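stuck on this one:
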Amino acid sequence: MIDYLKTYEKQTDSHLGLDARRLDSLFEKIARGELLPPRGQQAVDCGFTAHTLNDPHENPAIYHYYDWVMKTVFAATPVHELPAKIIGNEIVCANIFQTDWPQPLTVNRWQVEDVLALPLITERAVVIENNGVFIWLHHLHPSWPLILQSGNDFNDVHKQVILALSHKLALAYLGDLDIAGIQIVDTLTSLIKRNGRDASHLADLQSPAQVASWVAGYGIPNGSRSRINSSSTIIDPTWQQEANFLAISGKFVEQEQLIGEYERVVEKWLTCAG
């Protein structure tokens, strides 16, 4: 058994006192791989206030001791703890799974395994970057299979569902035509490819040729706003090509401008399944 406190004090040349011993039982549970309650409950169970293990200002000495042990002793150890965060760790989709639940469907971490076990009712789905565009398209076309990307929100449930679906469905992407939008789909592409899934359809709707057409028809001059930055790093060559075009054109397009265009291209793409 590791003496966590002595190891910390020796390595950091510090002295914490007996209060720090209250964390011994927690560290032993982590070492055994036990399922832990949310972080605040862990702190209270050890005799501290609820924010001690989350807030470096609550009890700095204990916080830094806990943080050091987690980052050194348990750096390679999976920690099984229930999250306190419920809202913000989910994915929203519509008309993907066979269910009589109202659509759109919000899937959280407690539902995800059961939802992923449901049969699928589509061979294709469109990932939409922005919340408002997602819900407006769902209102206009309540039967369309849509997945909300919700900007840069690559939370654990979102990643789990996207990876599961990208193994079974053709996923296309639609987002803002600015550098932030391109970076989001580039991150999504890297996630899918890194896990051996199929990202080959992501640019079906937002292809370089289509982007050029939309920028020509709807482009807004960048002006003083930093919507376009040619120095930003893009990994996927298709998205890099689009980022380069935006930089050369000096224009961007927001999703909200393209609703009519989306209605045309998405309907056509969905009917091409097979």
Q: What stands out?
A: The chain has a mean pLDDT of 92. Strands lie at 90-94, 105-108, 124-128, 146-148, 170-174, 220-221, 251-252.
